[in-house]
User: Fold this.
Amino acid sequence: MTTNDAYAQLLEKLKRVHLLGTVSELLGWDEQVNLPAGGAEQRAAQSAALADVQHAALSDPRLGEALAQLEAEAATLTADQRVVIREARKDYDRATRLPAEFVREKAELCSRAYHAWEQARPKSDFASYAPFLEKHVALAKREAGYLGWGERPYDYMLDLHDPGMTVALIEPLFAELKAGLVPLVRTVLASPKRSQASALRGFPVDKQSAFLREVTERMGFDFQHGRIDVSTHPFCSGTGADIRMTTRFAVDNPLDSLFSAIHETGHGLYEQGLPAEHAGTALGIAAGMGVHESQSRLWENQVARSRAFWRFFEPKWRAAFSEQTAALSSEALYREINAVRPTLIRVDSDEVTYNLHILLRFALERRLFSGELAVADLPAAWSELSQSLLGRAPSCHREGVLQDVHWSGGAFGYFPSYTLGNMMAAQLWYRAQAALPGLESDFESGNFARLLGWLRKEVHGRGRRYALSQLVERVTGAPLSPAPLLRYLSERYLPLAS
Assistant:
């Protein structure tokens, strides 16, 4: 084959892998949104069958032959083509080192474990779920072994979600964050001005849904190529032309559905901003979960919790909920939006205490993978760490070890992405403010196009050319650091506490 023919064949194979991946994501979305309880067993079999097809496509020898030829002729290729080949090689090597039966086994376990978690969580029944978690840990270690990470299985899981990240890199970042965050949390919690309980009650779900649709559309989400539904745990899946988001609703907690939707919209905007012409290649794929979380966190926190954002949306919110907001002042609303109320539930936590939840999970995952902690001992270890970091221990497993969906899908090493994303979001926020003077005026008029355009250029449009740490430094001019996040939290929350 000529070099051009080899590259064309590579692109053809990668696009097929990508299309199969979009089908897999749709199956996963449907499983959490629409699947009837009686369909769980069939869905597990469907997931395993599709995983088998995906694995075969990604490990196709013809893809490997094209890669080998292109690597030998790399000097004749463009920089972008070399990026595509570099990342395709990583994915191909991973696929060819994983036995097909292992891939099927893992896919089936993910489906079964999700339904086991979904049933165990409301009953606080860790015993029924523990065997699935034990199998997931064992499979994760086997997977690391297949890929040559047998002595460092947790580093493998971290790298899987955020390429290049390891325990050795994350530990000092998290230690510095903890050193600055713990005293900040204490100061905020000691304030007599801190709101102790929400006064928001009786917000009809249909009106909540209509309002959050208006907000997310104004932010720039394209509903011609996406939708939002309801699930137990809010999430975003899909790529490019078909983005599926979810949120959840409670009549006495309208801000939860709104900010969950805004968070997932951040993910959706990133996916919609990836270059469509490069779909399936490294030029059109997200850089990793930490970068993904930086997008959702920036929109959810730095933007949507700002006074400027609510100067535009507050009149609309009051018009939609005139009866429920009649006695609520603008200042009280702003304080409610930025209320700091420690909770045992990560997804319900405020942004000041949120990262303490991630430090807890990071510590537990490290101990699980080092062999220091057995799955059976997770609840006790969780309670001990929760008491230390959050000031209280869960009263039941639903408030502790069963609260998150991630482990049911074998997504170990994912939790650190949230805090890495929070750090990156803060750095991006300060850089965006410097690059785009007058952002607050934009927000006050409901204009988010300049910020979105800047993110599209600096983050979305770069695809997977750079890993998280490289991307942060290229865009902001500084290495990834917790200092901007601590600065941002102090600037927003200390004035509310004084």
